[in-house]
Design goal:
By secondary structure, the chain is an all-alpha fold. It is 76% helix and 0% strand. It has one domain.
Length: 388
């Protein structure tokens, strides 16, 4: 094992990877059940109906329907926590010569290689959309300038939301790149005004997008994802600050259970709002993701405190979630085009129904995820970790 791989292994947190794995599986299963084709074999229809019912009420409805998928909100909170934690522990690091240059190189190496490969997989879906009309929801429209904007992570600042380019979930990754770019500004505001000022400004930007959209401004022109994600990201960064300063007591089991219960309640409320059509009320539409971000930040803070104190002992199933979490970026980046391309391949050879269409796409996602992690994400991550 290389030195980079050893340092990467030492740096990993089981708690963080568990939450990443949970979020990644929630996104995958939600998209998998939504995008896979309905089976035609009546012999397995009862089984498929039970599977769809379970996934719909356990995965799809609890996480979707609001401003953003709640699993994506959790990803953004985790991102803010992980990016700010090193400086929260040692604020003097940012004063060292070359710190921000290394920061930019590390973020670039960590995100963009896999991001660009995932964009290419999306283009493969685009190339087949003309022959398979049902692929249009993966593409919608195609413009070359939209492709260039996506490759440069500029699609959060242009009205190209209708051009999914075969891999719509990557929109959130490009938005997150701009949060990394905004991090020095966030630190500057925090240094001069404190976390309350940072949170208030982020909250104002959070409500700016719906207000400007109502006034007729295209949401992409006001960079809706970046503005919305910022407040979630700040919540994660603030949790890192509290964790680094030991602001949560070691024996915080009640607080952890309270945060977990609050997250579950919000997921249940979200499912209820989805089921009964209450998202016509825009207050809930924006409020539920924000409350979930706050609950997730509290859960993360108490969980990390427990792990750091040595009182947290994960079960085997939790270690399995952590294994998925280690590969969560690869899974998130490639699952959409891989599902589409697998369904094309299955239909091209004349196979239909539950085993062929549902299971083959899931197996394909697993295989491509492992390949992307082994040959793209992990090497680039190790290289980024070696930068000083």
């Amino acid at each position: 094992m290389s030195e980079g791989a050893r340092s990467l292994r030492r740096a990993r947190s089981i708690c963080l990877d568990e939450l990443r794995g949970f979020a990644a599986l929630a996104v995958l299963l939600g998209h998998w059940i939504a995008w896979s084709q309905l089976p035609l074999d009546t012999a397995v229809t009862p089984l498929v109906n039970r599977l769809r019912f379970f996934l719909d009420y356990v995965v799809v409805r609890p996480f979707t329907g609001g401003y953003f998928n709640l699993a994506v909100v959790l990803f953004v909170v985790l991102s803010g926590f992980c990016i700010h934690l090193p400086l929260a522990r040692d604020p003097a690091r940012q004063e060292r010569v070359g710190f921000w240059k290394t920061y930019v190189y590390r973020r670039t190496l960590r995100i963009l290689p896999l991001y660009w490969v995932a964009c290419l997989l999306g283009l493969a879906v685009v190339s087949l959309a003309g022959a398979y009309a049902w692929l249009n929801p993966f593409v919608l429209t195609f413009q070359w300038w939209a492709l260039l904007a996506k490759l440069a992570c500029l699609d959060s600042f242009f009205p190209v939301g209708e051009a999914l380019l075969g891999n719509g979930p990557l929109d959130t990754v490009s938005a997150e790149m701009w949060l990394y770019a905004a991090y020095p500004v966030i630190l500057f505001i925090h240094r001069h005004g404190g976390w309350m000022t940072v949170f208030l400004l982020a909250s104002l930007l959070y409500v700016a997008t719906p207000i400007l959209t109502v006034l007729g401004v295209h949401p992409r022109f006001v960079s809706g994802r970046v503005f919305a994600f910022l407040v979630y990201w700040v919540i994660g960064a603030f949790a890192a600050e509290l964790f680094a300063k030991g602001m949560v007591p070691v024996r915080s089991n009640r607080l952890w259970w309270g945060a977990l219960t609050l997250c579950i309640v919000l997921l249940a409320v979200n499912a209820l709002l989805n089921t009964n059509g209450y998202y016509a009320n825009k207050i809930w539409y924006y409020l539920i993701p924000l409350l979930f971000a706050l609950a997730s930040g509290l859960l993360l803070l108490t969980w990390m405190t427990s792990e750091a104190s040595g009182t947290y002992k994960p079960y085997r199933v939790e270690l399995g979630l952590a294994w998925f979490g280690e590969r969560s970026y690869s899974l998130y980046a490639v699952h959409s085009p891989v599902i589409a391309l697998t369904l094309v391949a299955v239909q091209a050879v004349g196979l239909h129904g539950f085993p062929a269409e549902y299971l083959s796409s899931l197996i394909a996602v697993a295989c491509v995820t492992l390949l992307m992690y082994a040959y793209v994400e992990k090497p680039s991550h190790e290289k980024a970790q070696r930068l000083k």
